[in-house]
Amino acid sequence: MITTTHVRPILIVDDEPDICEALQLALQLEGFSVTSAQDRDTALRILDSLNPAIIFLDYRMPGLDCPNFLIQLRERICDTPIVLMTAGKDPGETAGHLGLHYHLSKPFDLEQMVALIREIETAA
Amino acid sequence: METISHIEQMLERIDTALSAAGEGIIVFEPDGQIAYASTVAKKLLGLPPQQHAPLRVTAALINLSQSNPLPPLHELPSDQLPVMAKIFGVKPERIVRISGAGHERAYLLQDLTEQINQGGGDGEHEFLDIVAHDLRAGLVPIKTYTQMLMTGMMGNLTDKQNETLRSIDQCVQRQVEKITAISDLTKFARNKLEIRHEPLNLAEPLTRAVDGIRKDCTRRGVTVELKLDEKTALIDGDEERLRRIFTALLARGVRQTVQGQSLGAQLAYQPDGRAQVCIWDNGDARNNGDLELLKPSGWEMVMARIQKDRSLGIVDLATIPELVRLHGGTLAHTADAAGTSVVFHFPTLTRTPRQAESKP
Protein backbone atom coordinates (compact mmCIF):
# COMPACT_ATOMS: atom_id res chain seq x y z
CA MET A 1 0.00 0.00 0.00
CA ILE A 2 1.65 3.23 -1.13
CA THR A 3 0.94 5.94 1.40
CA THR A 4 3.69 8.53 1.00
CA THR A 5 6.60 9.16 -1.29
CA HIS A 6 9.78 10.28 0.38
CA VAL A 7 12.04 12.65 -1.52
CA ARG A 8 15.34 11.44 -0.08
CA PRO A 9 15.80 7.80 -0.88
CA ILE A 10 16.80 4.95 1.36
CA LEU A 11 19.93 3.07 0.38
CA ILE A 12 20.20 -0.67 1.03
CA VAL A 13 23.69 -2.16 0.87
CA ASP A 14 23.66 -5.96 0.95
CA ASP A 15 25.51 -8.51 -1.16
CA GLU A 16 22.49 -10.82 -1.32
CA PRO A 17 20.42 -9.83 -4.37
CA ASP A 18 17.34 -11.59 -2.97
CA ILE A 19 17.53 -9.51 0.19
CA CYS A 20 18.02 -6.26 -1.73
CA GLU A 21 15.13 -7.05 -4.05
CA ALA A 22 12.72 -8.08 -1.28
CA LEU A 23 13.48 -5.09 0.95
CA GLN A 24 13.46 -2.68 -1.96
CA LEU A 25 10.05 -3.87 -3.13
CA ALA A 26 8.59 -3.90 0.38
CA LEU A 27 9.78 -0.39 1.21
CA GLN A 28 8.68 0.95 -2.16
CA LEU A 29 5.21 -0.44 -1.50
CA GLU A 30 5.33 1.36 1.84
CA GLY A 31 5.89 4.58 -0.06
CA PHE A 32 9.62 5.01 0.27
CA SER A 33 12.03 5.76 -2.51
CA VAL A 34 14.67 3.05 -2.38
CA THR A 35 17.88 2.19 -4.15
CA SER A 36 20.25 -0.66 -3.47
CA ALA A 37 23.87 -1.69 -3.92
CA GLN A 38 25.30 -5.19 -3.71
CA ASP A 39 28.92 -4.21 -3.22
CA ARG A 40 31.00 -1.48 -1.68
CA ASP A 41 32.11 0.20 -4.89
CA THR A 42 28.57 0.49 -6.18
CA ALA A 43 27.45 1.92 -2.84
CA LEU A 44 30.19 4.54 -2.89
CA ARG A 45 29.41 5.41 -6.51
CA ILE A 46 25.76 5.89 -5.61
CA LEU A 47 26.74 8.12 -2.72
CA ASP A 48 28.71 10.37 -5.06
CA SER A 49 25.46 11.49 -6.61
CA LEU A 50 22.88 10.70 -3.97
CA ASN A 51 22.24 11.90 -0.45
CA PRO A 52 20.15 9.17 1.12
CA ALA A 53 17.92 9.70 4.14
CA ILE A 54 19.01 6.40 5.71
CA ILE A 55 21.48 3.67 4.81
CA PHE A 56 20.76 0.05 5.67
CA LEU A 57 24.14 -1.65 5.70
CA ASP A 58 24.84 -5.36 5.85
CA TYR A 59 27.65 -6.05 8.29
CA ARG A 60 29.28 -9.01 6.63
CA MET A 61 29.83 -8.72 2.90
CA PRO A 62 32.53 -10.39 0.82
CA GLY A 63 35.49 -8.08 0.43
CA LEU A 64 33.90 -5.50 2.67
CA ASP A 65 35.68 -4.54 5.84
CA CYS A 66 32.82 -2.86 7.66
CA PRO A 67 34.81 -0.40 9.84
CA ASN A 68 36.90 0.74 6.88
CA PHE A 69 33.85 1.03 4.70
CA LEU A 70 32.18 3.12 7.40
CA ILE A 71 35.14 5.47 7.32
CA GLN A 72 34.73 5.88 3.58
CA LEU A 73 31.00 6.35 3.99
CA ARG A 74 31.52 9.04 6.60
CA GLU A 75 33.85 10.89 4.25
CA ARG A 76 30.95 11.24 1.85
CA ILE A 77 28.00 11.54 4.18
CA CYS A 78 28.58 12.79 7.70
CA ASP A 79 25.21 12.74 9.33
CA THR A 80 23.18 10.18 7.45
CA PRO A 81 21.83 7.61 9.89
CA ILE A 82 23.20 4.15 9.21
CA VAL A 83 21.33 1.03 10.29
CA LEU A 84 23.49 -2.05 10.65
CA MET A 85 21.79 -5.21 9.43
CA THR A 86 23.40 -8.38 10.65
CA ALA A 87 22.64 -12.06 10.97
CA GLY A 88 25.65 -12.45 13.23
CA LYS A 89 25.74 -12.81 16.97
CA ASP A 90 25.28 -9.86 19.34
CA PRO A 91 23.99 -7.37 16.74
CA GLY A 92 23.51 -4.59 19.30
CA GLU A 93 27.04 -4.95 20.56
CA THR A 94 28.44 -5.03 17.02
CA ALA A 95 26.57 -1.86 16.11
CA GLY A 96 27.69 -0.18 19.33
CA HIS A 97 31.32 -0.98 18.65
CA LEU A 98 31.00 0.56 15.22
CA GLY A 99 29.48 3.70 16.72
CA LEU A 100 26.12 3.04 15.12
CA HIS A 101 22.92 3.75 17.04
CA TYR A 102 20.64 1.57 15.00
CA HIS A 103 20.63 -2.10 14.10
CA LEU A 104 18.35 -4.82 12.81
CA SER A 105 18.93 -8.46 13.57
CA LYS A 106 18.30 -10.67 10.53
CA PRO A 107 15.75 -11.97 9.84
CA PHE A 108 13.69 -9.01 11.04
CA ASP A 109 10.02 -8.15 10.66
CA LEU A 110 9.11 -5.74 7.89
CA GLU A 111 7.02 -3.87 10.44
CA GLN A 112 10.12 -3.50 12.60
CA MET A 113 12.09 -2.02 9.68
CA VAL A 114 9.37 0.47 8.81
CA ALA A 115 9.00 1.46 12.49
CA LEU A 116 12.74 2.10 12.65
CA ILE A 117 12.61 4.31 9.55
CA ARG A 118 9.77 6.32 11.13
CA GLU A 119 11.76 6.60 14.37
CA ILE A 120 14.83 7.87 12.54
CA GLU A 121 12.75 10.31 10.52
CA THR A 122 11.17 11.63 13.70
CA ALA A 123 14.54 12.00 15.40
CA ALA A 124 16.02 13.87 12.41
CA MET B 1 63.88 -11.20 25.44
CA GLU B 2 62.35 -14.57 24.86
CA THR B 3 59.19 -13.58 26.69
CA ILE B 4 58.95 -10.25 24.89
CA SER B 5 59.15 -12.16 21.63
CA HIS B 6 56.37 -14.38 22.94
CA ILE B 7 54.19 -11.35 23.58
CA GLU B 8 54.97 -9.99 20.13
CA GLN B 9 53.99 -13.29 18.55
CA MET B 10 50.85 -13.28 20.61
CA LEU B 11 50.03 -9.78 19.39
CA GLU B 12 50.52 -10.83 15.80
CA ARG B 13 48.10 -13.70 16.31
CA ILE B 14 45.52 -11.44 17.92
CA ASP B 15 46.04 -8.83 15.22
CA THR B 16 45.49 -11.34 12.44
CA ALA B 17 42.35 -12.67 14.08
CA LEU B 18 40.89 -9.26 14.83
CA SER B 19 41.76 -7.67 11.49
CA ALA B 20 39.48 -10.15 9.78
CA ALA B 21 36.67 -8.80 11.93
CA GLY B 22 37.72 -5.21 11.30
CA GLU B 23 38.95 -4.73 14.82
CA GLY B 24 42.21 -3.31 15.99
CA ILE B 25 44.72 -3.34 18.79
CA ILE B 26 46.58 -0.52 20.39
CA VAL B 27 49.41 -1.21 22.80
CA PHE B 28 50.33 1.49 25.24
CA GLU B 29 53.61 1.97 27.01
CA PRO B 30 53.35 2.75 30.72
CA ASP B 31 53.87 6.45 30.00
CA GLY B 32 50.88 6.43 27.68
CA GLN B 33 52.84 6.44 24.44
CA ILE B 34 51.55 4.15 21.74
CA ALA B 35 54.02 1.30 21.28
CA TYR B 36 52.09 -0.59 18.67
CA ALA B 37 48.99 -0.04 16.60
CA SER B 38 47.56 -2.58 14.21
CA THR B 39 46.55 -1.62 10.68
CA VAL B 40 42.91 -1.20 11.56
CA ALA B 41 43.74 0.71 14.73
CA LYS B 42 45.97 3.10 12.76
CA LYS B 43 43.10 3.90 10.45
CA LEU B 44 40.85 4.48 13.40
CA LEU B 45 43.41 6.73 15.02
CA GLY B 46 43.61 8.79 11.84
CA LEU B 47 40.11 10.04 12.51
CA PRO B 48 39.17 13.00 14.67
CA PRO B 49 38.65 11.82 18.27
CA GLN B 50 34.93 12.48 18.28
CA GLN B 51 34.52 10.17 15.29
CA HIS B 52 36.82 7.33 16.15
CA ALA B 53 35.84 7.16 19.78
CA PRO B 54 32.71 5.07 19.31
CA LEU B 55 34.35 2.73 16.80
CA ARG B 56 35.59 -0.57 18.06
CA VAL B 57 39.15 -0.56 19.25
CA THR B 58 39.78 -3.86 20.94
CA ALA B 59 42.78 -2.77 22.83
CA ALA B 60 45.52 -4.27 24.90
CA LEU B 61 47.69 -2.41 27.34
CA ILE B 62 51.03 -4.06 27.51
CA ASN B 63 54.36 -3.19 28.98
CA LEU B 64 57.13 -4.59 26.81
CA SER B 65 59.84 -3.21 29.01
CA GLN B 66 61.56 -5.54 31.45
CA SER B 67 63.02 -2.65 33.36
CA ASN B 68 59.77 -0.94 34.15
CA PRO B 69 57.13 -3.58 34.75
CA LEU B 70 53.51 -2.69 35.21
CA PRO B 71 52.13 -3.23 38.70
CA PRO B 72 49.81 -6.13 39.43
CA LEU B 73 46.22 -5.26 38.75
CA HIS B 74 45.30 -4.88 42.43
CA GLU B 75 48.18 -2.44 42.90
CA LEU B 76 47.05 -0.14 40.14
CA PRO B 77 46.25 3.33 41.44
CA SER B 78 42.50 3.46 41.86
CA ASP B 79 42.11 6.11 39.20
CA GLN B 80 43.95 4.15 36.47
CA LEU B 81 41.61 1.25 35.95
CA PRO B 82 38.58 3.40 35.08
CA VAL B 83 40.81 5.42 32.76
CA MET B 84 41.97 2.27 31.01
CA ALA B 85 38.40 1.06 30.85
CA LYS B 86 37.35 4.38 29.35
CA ILE B 87 40.08 4.27 26.72
CA PHE B 88 39.02 0.78 25.73
CA GLY B 89 35.33 1.53 26.02
CA VAL B 90 34.74 -1.48 28.26
CA LYS B 91 33.76 -2.25 31.83
CA PRO B 92 36.76 -2.33 34.21
CA GLU B 93 36.09 -5.98 35.09
CA ARG B 94 36.84 -6.99 31.50
CA ILE B 95 40.45 -5.96 31.94
CA VAL B 96 42.62 -8.75 33.29
CA ARG B 97 46.31 -9.08 34.01
CA ILE B 98 48.61 -11.64 32.50
CA SER B 99 52.19 -12.25 33.49
CA GLY B 100 55.17 -13.21 31.41
CA ALA B 101 57.93 -15.49 32.64
CA GLY B 102 60.12 -12.46 33.40
CA HIS B 103 59.02 -9.14 34.76
CA GLU B 104 56.64 -8.36 31.96
CA ARG B 105 53.07 -7.86 32.86
CA ALA B 106 50.29 -7.07 30.52
CA TYR B 107 46.71 -6.03 30.83
CA LEU B 108 44.44 -7.51 28.27
CA LEU B 109 40.76 -7.49 27.68
CA GLN B 110 39.28 -10.68 29.00
CA ASP B 111 37.98 -11.86 25.63
CA LEU B 112 41.45 -11.49 24.13
CA THR B 113 42.91 -13.53 26.95
CA GLU B 114 40.40 -16.27 26.25
CA GLN B 115 41.31 -16.09 22.59
CA ILE B 116 44.96 -16.58 23.42
CA ASN B 117 44.22 -19.45 25.76
CA GLN B 118 42.08 -21.19 23.21
CA GLY B 119 44.61 -20.78 20.43
CA GLY B 120 43.41 -22.05 17.08
CA GLY B 121 40.75 -24.41 18.42
CA ASP B 122 37.91 -22.14 17.38
CA GLY B 123 37.99 -23.07 13.71
CA GLU B 124 35.01 -25.38 13.61
CA HIS B 125 32.95 -23.14 15.89
CA GLU B 126 33.71 -20.17 13.68
CA PHE B 127 32.56 -22.27 10.74
CA LEU B 128 29.29 -22.97 12.58
CA ASP B 129 28.93 -19.25 13.30
CA ILE B 130 29.30 -18.53 9.59
CA VAL B 131 26.76 -21.25 8.74
CA ALA B 132 24.33 -19.84 11.32
CA HIS B 133 24.85 -16.34 9.90
CA ASP B 134 24.14 -17.38 6.33
CA LEU B 135 21.11 -19.47 7.29
CA ARG B 136 19.62 -16.55 9.21
CA ALA B 137 20.36 -14.07 6.40
CA GLY B 138 18.73 -16.38 3.86
CA LEU B 139 15.46 -16.15 5.75
CA VAL B 140 15.20 -12.36 5.24
CA PRO B 141 13.60 -12.45 1.78
CA ILE B 142 11.27 -15.32 2.76
CA LYS B 143 10.08 -13.44 5.81
CA THR B 144 9.80 -10.12 3.95
CA TYR B 145 7.76 -11.53 1.05
CA THR B 146 5.55 -13.49 3.44
CA GLN B 147 4.83 -10.41 5.52
CA MET B 148 4.19 -8.33 2.41
CA LEU B 149 1.49 -10.81 1.45
CA MET B 150 0.14 -11.13 4.99
CA THR B 151 -0.28 -7.37 5.42
CA GLY B 152 -2.20 -7.06 2.16
CA MET B 153 0.50 -5.04 0.40
CA MET B 154 0.09 -7.24 -2.67
CA GLY B 155 -3.71 -7.28 -2.56
CA ASN B 156 -6.43 -9.00 -0.58
CA LEU B 157 -6.15 -12.68 0.24
CA THR B 158 -8.62 -15.31 1.29
CA ASP B 159 -8.72 -16.54 4.89
CA LYS B 160 -7.16 -19.83 3.80
CA GLN B 161 -4.30 -18.01 2.05
CA ASN B 162 -3.74 -15.85 5.13
CA GLU B 163 -3.68 -18.90 7.35
CA THR B 164 -1.13 -20.53 5.07
CA LEU B 165 1.06 -17.45 5.18
CA ARG B 166 0.88 -17.37 8.96
CA SER B 167 2.08 -20.96 8.94
CA ILE B 168 5.02 -20.03 6.69
CA ASP B 169 5.87 -17.11 8.98
CA GLN B 170 5.74 -19.39 12.00
CA CYS B 171 7.99 -21.95 10.26
CA VAL B 172 10.51 -19.18 9.57
CA GLN B 173 10.41 -18.21 13.24
CA ARG B 174 11.02 -21.80 14.31
CA GLN B 175 13.91 -22.06 11.90
CA VAL B 176 15.43 -18.92 13.40
CA GLU B 177 15.04 -20.39 16.87
CA LYS B 178 16.68 -23.62 15.79
CA ILE B 179 19.61 -21.75 14.24
CA THR B 180 20.00 -19.64 17.38
CA ALA B 181 19.94 -22.80 19.49
CA ILE B 182 22.73 -24.34 17.38
CA SER B 183 24.68 -21.11 17.66
CA ASP B 184 24.16 -21.10 21.44
CA LEU B 185 25.32 -24.69 21.63
CA THR B 186 28.64 -23.80 20.00
CA LYS B 187 29.02 -20.90 22.45
CA PHE B 188 28.18 -23.28 25.29
CA ALA B 189 30.95 -25.58 24.09
CA ARG B 190 33.38 -22.66 24.32
CA ASN B 191 32.05 -21.44 27.68
CA LYS B 192 31.04 -18.28 25.88
CA LEU B 193 27.29 -18.45 26.20
CA GLU B 194 25.96 -15.12 27.38
CA ILE B 195 22.47 -13.72 27.77
CA ARG B 196 20.91 -10.30 27.55
CA HIS B 197 20.02 -8.72 30.86
CA GLU B 198 16.87 -6.67 30.67
CA PRO B 199 13.95 -6.16 33.05
CA LEU B 200 11.40 -8.62 31.83
CA ASN B 201 7.91 -9.78 32.72
CA LEU B 202 8.04 -13.58 32.39
CA ALA B 203 4.40 -13.61 31.33
CA GLU B 204 5.46 -12.24 27.93
CA PRO B 205 7.81 -14.99 26.72
CA LEU B 206 5.58 -17.61 28.33
CA THR B 207 2.46 -16.32 26.55
CA ARG B 208 4.29 -16.11 23.24
CA ALA B 209 5.60 -19.63 23.65
CA VAL B 210 2.13 -21.01 24.39
CA ASP B 211 0.61 -19.07 21.48
CA GLY B 212 3.29 -20.53 19.22
CA ILE B 213 2.21 -24.12 19.87
CA ARG B 214 -1.58 -23.64 19.92
CA LYS B 215 -1.96 -24.63 16.28
CA ASP B 216 0.02 -27.83 16.78
CA CYS B 217 -2.14 -28.64 19.79
CA THR B 218 -5.31 -28.14 17.77
CA ARG B 219 -3.98 -30.37 14.99
CA ARG B 220 -3.19 -33.07 17.53
CA GLY B 221 -6.42 -32.74 19.47
CA VAL B 222 -4.55 -31.77 22.62
CA THR B 223 -5.79 -29.13 25.08
CA VAL B 224 -3.41 -26.34 26.05
CA GLU B 225 -3.73 -24.21 29.19
CA LEU B 226 -1.96 -21.04 30.27
CA LYS B 227 -2.29 -19.74 33.82
CA LEU B 228 -0.69 -16.45 34.76
CA ASP B 229 -0.42 -15.01 38.25
CA GLU B 230 -2.63 -11.98 38.80
CA LYS B 231 0.38 -10.28 40.29
CA THR B 232 3.36 -9.35 38.24
CA ALA B 233 7.05 -8.84 38.86
CA LEU B 234 10.09 -8.38 36.71
CA ILE B 235 13.10 -10.61 36.37
CA ASP B 236 16.49 -9.78 34.90
CA GLY B 237 16.50 -11.85 31.75
CA ASP B 238 16.73 -12.53 28.06
CA GLU B 239 13.26 -12.66 26.55
CA GLU B 240 14.20 -14.42 23.33
CA ARG B 241 16.10 -17.19 25.06
CA LEU B 242 13.47 -17.68 27.75
CA ARG B 243 10.82 -17.97 25.08
CA ARG B 244 12.98 -20.56 23.36
CA ILE B 245 13.30 -22.55 26.59
CA PHE B 246 9.54 -22.52 27.13
CA THR B 247 8.81 -23.27 23.47
CA ALA B 248 11.21 -26.21 23.47
CA LEU B 249 9.48 -27.79 26.47
CA LEU B 250 5.98 -27.04 25.24
CA ALA B 251 6.80 -28.44 21.79
CA ARG B 252 8.17 -31.52 23.50
CA GLY B 253 4.88 -31.72 25.43
CA VAL B 254 2.95 -31.67 22.16
CA ARG B 255 5.04 -34.60 20.88
CA GLN B 256 4.53 -36.50 24.14
CA THR B 257 0.75 -36.19 24.21
CA VAL B 258 -2.01 -37.82 22.19
CA GLN B 259 -5.55 -36.77 21.37
CA GLY B 260 -7.60 -35.96 24.47
CA GLN B 261 -4.60 -35.26 26.67
CA SER B 262 -3.44 -31.84 27.76
CA LEU B 263 -0.42 -29.69 28.44
CA GLY B 264 0.14 -26.26 29.82
CA ALA B 265 2.21 -23.58 31.45
CA GLN B 266 1.78 -21.69 34.69
CA LEU B 267 3.49 -18.60 36.09
CA ALA B 268 3.20 -17.93 39.80
CA TYR B 269 5.07 -15.64 42.17
CA GLN B 270 6.24 -17.29 45.37
CA PRO B 271 6.04 -15.72 48.84
CA ASP B 272 9.84 -15.56 48.86
CA GLY B 273 9.73 -13.26 45.81
CA ARG B 274 10.84 -15.84 43.25
CA ALA B 275 9.00 -16.41 40.00
CA GLN B 276 7.96 -20.00 39.39
CA VAL B 277 7.22 -21.32 35.93
CA CYS B 278 5.81 -24.80 35.53
CA ILE B 279 5.50 -26.48 32.15
CA TRP B 280 3.64 -29.75 32.19
CA ASP B 281 1.94 -32.35 30.07
CA ASN B 282 0.16 -35.58 30.90
CA GLY B 283 1.66 -37.74 28.16
CA ASP B 284 3.41 -40.93 29.11
CA ALA B 285 7.11 -40.07 29.46
CA ARG B 286 8.43 -43.46 30.58
CA ASN B 287 10.23 -44.27 27.34
CA ASN B 288 11.74 -40.89 26.64
CA GLY B 289 15.12 -40.08 28.14
CA ASP B 290 15.47 -36.65 26.54
CA LEU B 291 14.95 -34.81 29.83
CA GLU B 292 18.28 -36.21 31.02
CA LEU B 293 19.61 -33.21 29.09
CA LEU B 294 18.01 -30.92 31.67
CA LYS B 295 20.65 -32.00 34.14
CA PRO B 296 23.77 -29.88 33.72
CA SER B 297 25.92 -31.77 31.26
CA GLY B 298 28.93 -31.12 29.16
CA TRP B 299 29.20 -30.49 25.47
CA GLU B 300 30.43 -34.05 24.93
CA MET B 301 27.23 -35.56 26.31
CA VAL B 302 25.13 -33.31 24.11
CA MET B 303 27.15 -34.29 21.04
CA ALA B 304 26.88 -37.97 21.94
CA ARG B 305 23.10 -37.65 22.13
CA ILE B 306 22.93 -35.81 18.79
CA GLN B 307 25.03 -38.53 17.17
CA LYS B 308 22.91 -41.26 18.74
CA ASP B 309 19.66 -39.67 17.54
CA ARG B 310 21.21 -38.73 14.17
CA SER B 311 19.21 -35.53 14.63
CA LEU B 312 19.45 -32.02 16.05
CA GLY B 313 16.01 -32.52 17.60
CA ILE B 314 17.25 -32.16 21.16
CA VAL B 315 19.39 -29.12 20.47
CA ASP B 316 16.76 -26.83 22.04
CA LEU B 317 16.82 -28.80 25.27
CA ALA B 318 20.59 -29.07 25.48
CA THR B 319 21.28 -25.44 26.37
CA ILE B 320 18.43 -25.08 28.87
CA PRO B 321 20.41 -25.85 32.07
CA GLU B 322 23.11 -23.35 31.15
CA LEU B 323 20.60 -20.67 30.12
CA VAL B 324 18.70 -21.14 33.38
CA ARG B 325 21.95 -20.90 35.33
CA LEU B 326 22.85 -17.66 33.52
CA HIS B 327 19.48 -16.27 34.65
CA GLY B 328 20.33 -17.15 38.24
CA GLY B 329 17.52 -19.68 38.20
CA THR B 330 17.02 -23.33 39.05
CA LEU B 331 15.06 -26.12 37.44
CA ALA B 332 13.72 -29.51 38.47
CA HIS B 333 11.68 -32.05 36.61
CA THR B 334 9.69 -35.23 36.99
CA ALA B 335 8.77 -37.53 34.12
CA ASP B 336 6.78 -40.75 34.42
CA ALA B 337 3.66 -42.49 33.19
CA ALA B 338 1.48 -39.67 34.52
CA GLY B 339 3.32 -37.09 32.51
CA THR B 340 6.10 -34.54 32.70
CA SER B 341 6.51 -31.50 34.87
CA VAL B 342 9.41 -29.06 34.60
CA VAL B 343 9.55 -26.35 37.26
CA PHE B 344 11.77 -23.27 37.02
CA HIS B 345 12.48 -20.69 39.68
CA PHE B 346 13.92 -17.28 38.80
CA PRO B 347 14.87 -14.44 41.13
CA THR B 348 12.79 -11.34 40.63
CA LEU B 349 14.07 -7.80 40.53
CA THR B 350 11.33 -6.68 42.90
CA ARG B 351 11.25 -9.00 45.86
CA THR B 352 7.61 -8.23 46.64
CA PRO B 353 5.27 -8.92 43.76
CA ARG B 354 3.04 -5.97 43.00
CA GLN B 355 -0.44 -5.87 41.55
CA ALA B 356 -0.64 -5.66 37.79
CA GLU B 357 -1.45 -2.13 36.74
CA SER B 358 -3.89 -3.25 34.12
CA LYS B 359 -5.52 -6.60 33.90
CA PRO B 360 -8.28 -7.43 31.46
Q: Topology, please?
A:
The complex is a heterodimer of chains A (124) and B (360).
Chain A: E1 10-13, H1 17-29, E2 34-37, H2 40-49, E3 54-58, H3 66-76, E4 82-86, H4 91-97, E5 102-105, H5 110-123
Parallel strand pairs in A: 1-2, 1-3, 3-4, 4-5
Chain B: H1 2-20, E1 26-28, E2 34-37, H2 39-45, H3 49-52, E3 60-62, H4 80-88, E4 95-99, E5 105-109, H5 110-118, H6 123-150, H7 159-189, E6 198-201, H8 203-220, E7 223-228, E8 231-232, E9 234-237, H9 239-256, E10 262-269, E11 275-281, H10 299-309, H11 315-318, H12 320-326, E12 330-336, E13 339-346, E14 354-355
Parallel strand pairs in B: 1-3, 7-10
Antiparallel strand pairs in B: 1-2, 3-5, 4-5, 6-9, 8-14, 10-11, 11-13, 12-13
Describe this structure in a few short sentences:
Chain A has helices at residues 17-29, 40-49, 66-76, 91-97, 110-123, and strands at residues 10-13, 34-37, 54-58, 82-86, 102-105. Chain A has 124 residues and is of the alpha/beta class. Chain B is built from twelve helices and 14 strands.
- Radius of gyration of chain A over all CA atoms, rounded: 13 Å
Q: What order do the strands of the largest sheet of chain B run in, or round the barrel if closed?
A: 2-1-3-5-4
SSE order of chain A, one letter for each helix or strand: EHEHEHEHEH
List segments of chain B where confidence is low: pLDDT < 50 over at least 5 consecutive residues: 1-5, 47-69, 98-105, 351-360
Mean residue pLDDT of chain B: 74
Strand order of the largest sheet of chain A: 2-1-3-4-5
What do you see in this structure?
The complex is a heterodimer of chains A (124) and B (360). By secondary structure, chain A is α/β, with parallel strands linked by helices. Chain A has helices at residues 17-29, 40-49, 66-76, 91-97, 110-123; strands spanning 10-13, 34-37, 54-58, 82-86, 102-105. Chain A has a five-stranded parallel β-sheet, sandwiched between helices. In chain A, strand 3 (54-58), helix 3 (66-76) and strand 4 form a beta-alpha-beta unit. The relative contact order of chain A is 0.16. Chain B is α+β, with helices and mostly antiparallel strands and 360 residues long. Chain B has twelve helices and 14 strands. Chain B has a five-stranded mixed β-sheet. In chain B, strands 7-10-11-13-12 form a five-stranded mixed β-sheet, with helices on one face. Chain B starts with a helix and ends in a 5-residue tail after the last strand. The interface between A and B is large, with 34 and 37 residues.
